[in-house]
Specification:
310 residues, alpha/beta, binds nicotinamide-adenine-dinucleotide, 10 helices, globular, 38% helix, seven-stranded parallel sheet, two-stranded parallel ribbon
Length: 310
């Protein structure tokens, strides 16, 4: 059970996952087309004999022998997934079909990195897994949201039709070292702007809220989900329910960086959710998982990383 494929393994979450899997004794095959990922994220792993890197695009079929698959390949930030929306949908949908096909042939357990975006702009807070979501199917975020929704459908149909062991998690905003510095996500944006002494960009009035999960906590959740009994298939929310307004986050970042940056306000982008917070009751009950790292501690680690690369 030790040959593990990580698609999107050179990305932010994928590279942390590869590290964790290697330290648990697994053989890791990291697959990436480097659309948003980078070799720098995994350069330190290349010398390890149990680590292999494969340049490949998940929209094409893949023939390898593996025991477990973590399917993470997909650009995750709006800036990146909206740059080539057709490719984004293909990556989610064709990528899921190809990786599920591989799992079917090898009888590998397969994990899907789904997203809180499947809930769209929700009418209920916090969002439990039973909520079906409110997504605009023709908006500019739909390539990602609907692509991920379709991928979930495929996972559940492969499970029902072909009895594949699947594991689906819905990830809420996660941050930490190795995030892309220019991907427009709020934590990296604020930190980079604060370090460079630029004004922090707030969209709207800054009262919209988000919850932020530190990457180490999230990867703990991935490992627990993959190791859970076969009948636990999800979907399961993983995220940190502590909620902060964008104004609170901006002030925290400015104070931790020790910056003199001010705030600058811009119009809200289309379909930007007003509030987003996970209900993680199920993950607590079924996986005995809950996030442990405080926003302040997680931000300190992330700021240290960005100071190093900027
Ligand atoms: N980071 C978050 O807060 C978050 C939240 C919800 C869901 N997710 C999901 O988790 C996964 C990883 O996200 P991330 O934050 O690490 O993003 P990321 O952009 O850093 O990583 C995605 C990786 O997938 C690769 N990739 C993209 N298209 C590909 C393709 N067609 N073939 C092969 N590789 C491809 C990229 O090069 C990159 O290395 C994604 O599926 C994302 O939707 C992340």
């Amino acid at each position: 059970m030790n040959r593990i494929l990580v698609t999107g393994g050179a990305g932010f979450l994928g590279s942390h996952l590869c590290e964790r899997l290697l330290s648990s004794g697994a053989d890791v095959l990291c697959l990436d087309n480097f659309y948003t990922g980078s070799k720098a994220n995994i350069a330190h792993l290349l010398e390890q004999p149990r680590f292999e890197l494969l340049r490949h695009d998940v929209t094409f079929p893949l023939y390898v022998e593996v025991d477990r698959i973590f399917n993470l390949a997909c650009p995750a930030s709006p800036v990146h997934y909206q740059r080539d929306p057709v490719q984004t949908t293909k990556t989610s949908v064709h990528g899921a079909i190809n990786m599920l096909g591989l799992a079917k042939r090898t009888r590998a357990a397969i994990f899907q990195a789904s997203t809180s975006e499947v809930y769209g702009d929700p009418e209920i807070h916090p969002q439990p897994e039973s909520y079906w979501g409110r997504v605009n199917p023709v908006g500019s975020r739909a390539c990602y949201d609907e692509g991920k929704r379709c991928a979930e459908t495929l996972f559940f149909d492969y499970h029902r039709q072909h009895h594949l062991p699947i594991k689906v998690v819905r990830i809420f905003n996660t941050y930490g070292p190795k995030m892309h510095p220019n991907d427009g996500r709020v934590v990296s944006n604020f930190i980079v702007q604060a370090i460079e002494g630029k004004d922090l960009t707030i969209f709207g009035d800054g009262q919209q809220t988000r919850s932020f999960c530190y990457v180490d906590d999230l990867i703990d959740g991935f490992m627990k989900m993959m190791d859970s009994p076969e009948d636990l298939i999800g979907p399961i929310n993983l995220g940190n329910p502590a909620e902060f307004t964008m104004l609170e986050l901006a002030e925290k970042v400015i104070s931790l960086v020790g910056s003199r940056s001010k705030l600058c306000f811009k119009a809200l982008p289309e379909d930007d959710p007003k509030q987003r917070r996970p209900d993680i009751t199920l993950a607590g009950k079924l996986l005995q998982w809950q996030p442990r790292v405080s926003l302040e501690d997680g931000l300190k680690e992330t700021i240290k990383y960005f100071r190093g690369i900027l």
